[in-house]
Amino acid sequence: MALLEVIDVSKIFPGVRALDQVSFTLKPGEVHALVGENGAGKSTLIKVLTGVYQPDGGELRYQDEPAQFGTPMDAQRAGISTIYQEVNLVPLMSVAQNLFLGREPRRLGLIDRKRMDREAGEILSGYGVTTDVRRQLGTLALGAQQMVALARAVMIDAKVVIMDEPTSSLEPREVQTLFGVIRDLHARGIGIIYVSHRLDELYQICDTVTILRDGRLVHTGRLADLERIKLVSLMLGRDMAEVRREGATAFSGAATADAGAAPVLRVRELNSRHKLHDVSFDVRPGEVVGLGGLLGAGRSETIKAIGGAYHLDSGGIQVDGKDLKKPTPERAVRFGIAVQPEDRKAEGIVPGLSVRENIALAVLPRVSRFGFVSDAKVDEIVDRYMKRLRIKASSPDQAVGDLSGGNQQKVLLARLLATGPKVLLLDEPTRGIDIGAKAEVQSLIDELAAEGLGVVLVSSDAEELVEGSDRVVVLRDGVVVGTLTGAEVTTEDLMSTIATEAPREH
Amino acid sequence: MTMGIASDPETPAIVVEDVRKAERTDRIVGTIQRQGALAVLIVLTLIALATFPNFRSFDNAATILVAAAPPMLIALGMTFVIITGGIDLSVGSLYVLGGVLAAWASQYGLLAAFALPLAVCGTIGLANGLLIAYTRMAPFIVTLAALLGARGLMRAISSEGSNTYLVQDDAFRKLGNGSFLDIGYQVWLVAALVVIGMVVLARSRFGHSIYAVGGSEDAASLMGVPVRRTKVWVYVLSGLLAGLAGAINAAKLGSGVTVLGTGMELDAIAAVVIGGTLLTGGAGTIAGTIAGVLLLGVIQNLINQVGNVNSNWQQVISGAFLALVVVAQTYLVRLRRVT
User: Fold this and answer.
1) B3–A154: do the CB atoms touch at under 8 Å?
2) Of the residues A148, A164, A363, B102, which has the maximum number of CB atoms within 10 A of its CB?
3) Could you give the number of structural domains in chain B?
4) Which whole number is the average pLDDT over B32-40?
């Protein structure tokens, strides 16, 4: 008997097929891993299951009946609970109130606080949470908050629990507690959909796995029968047919770095709670260093940390031999570090402003005198970069929001270059842009490196990463697990490095 | 309802980190947050008792309470609204409107003197609530519109404020001036409503919904809290209480005075915030609001005692105090988060 069944479900957004005839079955008591890289369709699938999105095609069956969830509440009432990464509870209310909200025990019409607190304590101790339940939820550690959310979900008779990266903010021992709870749920016949990128965890706790890529189902089956290397290649690999159709990448493949040159960027033992552990690497002028790894391995965090936009507990960053102490985005720019964020719409360009204004944003401090901006100087800089990066806009005054994804990306690059950086950190520079523009951005990266910039490249596209990089530093769970150099820089080596088993911690 | 999972004895506890220390810090900070206004009120009262002989009299205490009765009602409604993360700017106008309506309606008897202002102000509150909950317009704008509208309505029925209705009904006037155990009737009435308000907020599902909506609207709706209904009700309550406050004030003054009440909404907001309710919603108590209202009342009373000080200084002091409280709150909230 299937608990929850998805049959040939599609979901289409303007311009994208987020889900393309995906099928998926969850049995009672099954712990089912759902994996895939960014854009694979995992979150879309979860949103279809939880009533956030309505499918554009296909069928949803729940407990052997056709089901339709109009809102998240509908799904929840039917018994499908989701534990989000961002805990969905009320932080200012007490732990007990959060656990019982809407179903508080009452006596004579009034909430029986004593009973509520007592029962909350009893329930939570079963989840390894031993704290005063009258405390504000927000004052608890994130792991404990997540347990409260889980306890609440189970309490309201959930039959399916969806966990979206539940361990991303947990300490190792908290992870073990969570696994204990998952095993209990498993024994009670509750179906669990477990989304995570930590392979070690998947192999510890999951029975079955479903792999999505580019909105399509690429594999589903018993996890124990699937080798790690196979799992990784299914997640990352591109079909041969696709490679033939699109051609390989536009990177030249020629190394331009002078192997003897002093590093322009030196990163030493970056540490950030849960996310980065002793991450170190060097980038020489003219060199493209790729950061490889699965989603959540710490690639974006590393880039953000170097750019001063992510909290570090310890670590050293040097640009041209000078220490960047207490990095902030402003200081990082002054040291010559330019960061292209992963989400260019949210963190990069200003869509409502023109091409000219977007580029000028970065150079305002340089072209203004006594607070006044010299138009002529701005025009000169804008003109130079529009030509050099081959930005296709009707005029410098066209709004950036109206340009194609590829040209938006180039505007962003222009803005970064206009600050006169020594190091360029690129997080997914070709995501969401069409094939032609992709090739152009790729050859631009090559050119910039050839001119002596140090480049750090993050890409979920394995081909792009190995062909674009001179060296690849591979991260897993925030730890550098290997560096590929020279002839090792291949997708096969990348995948086998990612798939190596972590030393057991227990 | 107990559905705890049989715990594996090996299962390590999640919150092992200095639990006790964190809990203690949390408790202390929480207490300061909730009881800060009360502490300041007590200290100020003690100083006043020692310094001003006239402050010490029972009559003076009764005067403070009677003067604080209408603001207390308005602040009570405001507490509900602010805990949901909203704001109600219309209550000052509703207070005046309620007073004028009560004085006018008193010619038809005691019941009418209460029923008319409650009906009109409750309806305006309902309109506020519906607009805020269903169109997702900002409470600030919706209730600002209601402020202007109610003020206009009041002017229209009182011929630009020149027409003062006198209270016609003796029973209604008696209610405003009579007393039980030497404490004005309206103080008893307000005290009763405050107690009911406390029970509702702390011990009813509706009360918990109010906190949940203000604490995190998205989470609340995912947890099945009727977010819209909760919002509508707090604005209805706020409107009703403002109308009632106007009515009892008219009973005390013997007429529907049209010039008072400007800025009452801001005083109420100040009292609520001084009382430890977070302006961002999600936390606060009525006990704190009582302390906040009384604190503002005592400051006013003391300035009157000093005599030769311009009473506008009361607002300066209240303003400074409010700023201090907001800064302290911000700091305390952050401190709590870190633990």
Assistant:
1) yes
2) B102
3) 1
4) 75
The complex's ipTM? 0.76
Number of domains in chain A: 3
pLDDT score at B14: 44
Residue A217, strand partner residues: A212
- What letter does residue B53 receive in the DSSP assignment? G
User: Are A178 and A34 contained in the same domain?
Assistant: yes
Least confident of A246-250, A374-378, A422-426, B167-171: A246-250
Q: Does B2 touch chain A (CB under 8 A)?
A: yes
The answer to whether B17 contacts chain A (CB < 8 Å) is: yes
Does A123 contact B3 at a Cβ distance shorter than 8 Å?
yes
A440 and A416 in one domain?
A: no
CB contact at 8 A, A422 and A320? yes
The answer to which of A446-450, B26-30, B89-93, B135-139 has the lowest mean pLDDT is B26-30
Is the pLDDT reported for residue A34 higher than 50? yes
For residues B30 and A175, give the distance between their C-alpha atoms in angstroms, rounded to a whole number: 30
| Residue B218: closest C-alpha in chain A | A88
Q: What is the CA radius of gyration of chain A?
A: 25
Q: Which residues of B touch A152 (CB under 8 A)?
A: 223
Find all residues with CB under 8 Å of A469, minimum gap 6, and list them: A288, A289, A290, A457, A489
Residue A250 lies in a domain: no
Q: Among partner residues B15, B214, B222, which is closest to A129 by beta-carbon distance?
A: B15
Query: Which of B23, B199, B221 has its CB closest to that of A132?
Result: B23
How many other CB atoms sit within 10 Å of the CB of residue A362? 20
Question: Binning pLDDT at 50, 70 and 90, where does residue B129 land?
Answer: very high
Q: Within a domain: residue A252?
A: no
Q: Which of B4, B12, B282 sits opposite A125 (nearest CB)?
A: B4
Q: Is A127 on the interface with B (CB under 8 A)?
A: yes
> Are residues A488 and A387 part of one domain?
no
Closest CA to A265 of A338, A209, A182, A196: A338
Q: What is the CATH number of the domain that holds A188?
A: 3.40.50.300
Whole-angstrom distance, CA of residue B314 vs CA of residue B300: 6
Q: A413 and A401, same structural domain?
A: yes
Local structure of residue A10 (DSSP, 8 states): E
Q: What is the span of the domain harbouring residue A387?
A: 350-420
Tell me the pLDDT band of B311, cut-offs 50, 70 and 90: low
From the list A76, A122, A139, the residue facing B4 with the nearest CB is: A122
Q: Would an 8 Å CB–CB cutoff place A378 in contact with chain B? A: no
CB B6 to CB A184 under 8 A?
Answer: yes
Pair A125, A177: CB distance under 8 Å: no
Last-in-domain residue among A401, A420, A439: A420
8-state DSSP, A16: E
Can you list the positions of beta strands (E) in chain B?
179-180, 183-184
Contact B15 A140 (CB under 8 A): yes
* Domain span holding position B133: 40-46+53-331
Q: Which two tokens stand for residue A338?
A: 């330019």
B105 contacts B168 by C-beta, under 8 angstroms: no
Whether residue A201 sits in one domain with residue A67: yes
Tell me if chain B has a CB within 8 Å of the CB of A114. Answer: no
- Per-residue confidence (pLDDT) for residue B68, from 0 to 100: 83
| Joined tokens for residue B336 | 């709590």
> Please, which pLDDT band fits residue A259 given cuts at 50, 70 and 90?
low
Q: Are residues A454 and A504 in the same domain?
A: yes
- Spell out the alpha helix ranges (H) of A430-500: 435-450, 462-468, 491-499
* pLDDT at residue A253 in the model: 57
pLDDT, average across residues B156-168 = 73
**pLDDT for position B124:** 94
Q: Which amino acid is at A316?
A: G
Q: How far apart are CA A136 and CA A142, in angstroms?
A: 13
Dig out the tokens for B132 from the structure.
């805020």
Q: Judge whether residue A43 has pLDDT over 60.
A: yes
